[in-house]
Write a structure and sequence with these properties.
With about 180 residues, this protein is of the alpha+beta class. Helices cover about 50% and strands about 20% of the residues.
Length: about 180
Amino acid sequence: MKEEKAVVYKTDRNYFYNDFQKAKWLILLFGYGLFERKRLEKKLDSMQYRVYNTKITSGRPGDANYLEIPFNELKSVQLKQSVEHKNHNIADLIFESETGIIIEFLGLKEAKELESVFALVIEKENKRRKLAQKAKGEYENIQPGGLEELNNLVGMWQQGMISDEDYYREEAKLRKK
């Protein structure tokens, strides 16, 4: 099976700006800062988020911190930006699913654009659900074998072979009481 491609977003280095500055001073003073800087680099490399055609993920599959939210379960997306992060033009995106899963994309440069894209995804998915529910409700009450008859009835009505009144009367007969 062909693996689905993803767009990868990474946390910007400036997300840990103060921590890197502190590590720089610790290098000058004690040499301990080298270890702290290496730890920060490793943490920064692990902070990757993937957006697929049908889902978003955080972490690596199989890891304890791996999270995944399919688009059809997205409930909300929220942009958060602290004053410090505003100075570096980065922000966080918080995604919440209908099942309560929360994924945070931390320290992104493209956060505002990504938020607007996911707001559209959520809006479109909500519209799709409403239409699916409406379509399901329209055909729930039709008698067995009635869909074919209804299809023929609609065809005759659209071609002008029967009047509106006749169509609605016959349609009502096809639906269960």
